[in-house]
Amino acid sequence: MNSKIILLLFLLCVSETFSTKAQCFNKNNAFGEGETISYEISYNWGPIWVNAGKVTFLVSREKFMGKDSWHLKSTGVTYSSYDLFFKVRDYYDSWINPETFSTYEFRRYIYEGGYTLINTLRFDYLNSKAYSSTKRNKDQVREDTLKMDLCPFDMLSAVYYTRTLDFSSLKSETKIPISVIIDDNVYPIYIRSLGKEIVTNQDGTKYRCIKFSAKMVEGTIFRGDEDVLVWVTDDENKIPVYIEAKILIGTVKAYLKDFKGLRNPVNSLIKN
């Protein structure tokens, strides 16, 4: 289980109100301080499905270098029973301006089967640049300066930004581009809306959802086709309920496990 894969999956929740020429941020009615959401991750190992680990997202309000910020956090860890096969301990932190959603700083530390990576991103919106510092294993630190477009996001700010958008006028088959900075590269991806469906979660609960597919970046994880499907709650919270992704080495699924501190009622929940 690679938690970078999981975070990439959560970038798929945007509406047709987004474009590369649109205002980067309007208003947040989707989440608030104290929100915690967790997912169980299953991995297809040949004919066998294995519950490999857990990914958690947390939100807090705090000061960052004297500035008001949302502190967005995500962790990805394998279960102890899976550690013998491929141990994962991944940690992501993003501090963003609560009024503009612009990133102050993004940090990523991963340990995946003996491979380590430490990455820090600092954003200079005045000069349209991002400064990346990356260290892989025992290699020397690599410093990069990346040119940003109008609305660039780090991996976590993209997840939360997309939840703030208006889904009410979303039309089926609409394509939406989004630009995400990962480590020392800028990745353009797009998603396609596929209408609405009812999803039964792993625990048997049912939700009214909006469905999307996504064309991801061809490379070591994805084939470059529309390899990802995601179902997002059709309410003001707009949280993913179920995600399925075809990757080069199998299939990954993410199931909504638990949530607390949501800003809005879960009106998408279908009660028996």
Could you explain the architecture of this structure?
With about 270 residues, this protein is mainly beta. Helices cover about 10% and strands about 55% of the residues. It is built from three helices and 16 strands. The chain has a 16-stranded mixed β-sheet that branches.
Q: Helicity level, as a percent range?
A: under 10%
Query: What is the averaged pLDDT score?
Result: 82
Assembly type of the chains comes to: single chain
**How many DSSP-defined strands?**
16
Portion of residues in beta strands equals over 45%
Task: Give a short overview.
By secondary structure, the protein is mainly β. The chain contains three helices and 16 strands. It has one domain.
Describe the SSE topology.
Elements: H1 3-9, E1 36-45, E2 48-64, E3 67-78, H2 80-86, E4 88-96, E5 103-112, E6 115-124, E7 129-136, E8 142-147, E9 152-153, H3 155-163, E10 175-182, E11 185-200, E12 206-215, E13 228-233, E14 240-247, E15 250-260, E16 269-270
Parallel strand pairs: 9-10
Antiparallel strand pairs: 1-2, 1-15, 2-3, 3-4, 4-5, 5-6, 6-7, 7-8, 10-11, 11-12, 12-13, 12-16, 13-14, 14-15
